[in-house]
Amino acid sequence: QVRLVESGGGLVQAGASLRLSCAASGRAFSSYAMGWFRQAPGKEREFVSATKWIGGDRYYADSVKGRFTISREYAKNTLYLQMNSLKPEDTAVYYCAAANRGSIEVIPTSYDYWGQGTQVTVSS
């Protein structure tokens, strides 16, 4: 059974940094695309960043490009999202997701597995 567990969220001031982690377990993810999404109150879930578990391609939403970095640590089976220069508009619940596909996906419905989410709140 696939399990994704996010951690690392919190309350920070604008301009601060946070690193989110997503511990993945339950199967080998070598063929999977892994993504980060976020959902603010009253808004739809939106794409933040994605990568292949194996491979160097990384995609970012325009709103986070240059500030966020997605990475993974194979030894720990963990996906990360380093978030720098945080803004109040980054406030949302952040979700880790896994898609058993050969390509990087940016649409939430393309993902097969989801974590429970971690809250990120950025104060001005």
Care to describe what's here?
This protein is mainly beta and 124 residues long. It is 0% helix and 50% strand. The protein is built from no helices and eleven strands. It has strands spanning 3-7, 10-13, 18-25, 33-39, 46-52, 58-60, 68-73, 78-83, 92-99, 113-114, 118-123. Strands 2, 4, 5, 6, 9, 10 and 11 form a seven-stranded mixed β-sheet that branches. A four-stranded antiparallel β-sheet has the order 1-3-8-7, with no helix packed on it. Strand 5 and strand 6 form a beta hairpin. It is globular, with a radius of gyration of 13 Å. The termini are far apart. The model has no long low-confidence stretch (mean pLDDT 95).
How would the global form be characterised? globular
Approximately how much helix is present in the residues? under 10%
How much of the sequence lies in strands comes to: over 45%
Spans of at least 5 consecutive residues with low confidence: none
Outline of this structure?
The chain has 124 residues and is mainly beta. It is built from no helices and eleven strands.
Task: List its salient traits.
50% strand; 124 residues; 7-stranded mixed sheet; 4-stranded antiparallel sheet; mainly beta; 0% helix
Question: Would you spell out the secondary-structure blueprint of this structure?
Answer:
Layout lengths: L2 E5 L2 E4 L4 E8 L7 E7 L6 E7 L5 E3 L7 E6 L4 E6 L8 E8 L13 E2 L3 E6 L1
Parallel strand pairs: 2-11
Antiparallel strand pairs: 1-3, 3-8, 4-5, 4-9, 5-6, 7-8, 9-10, 9-11
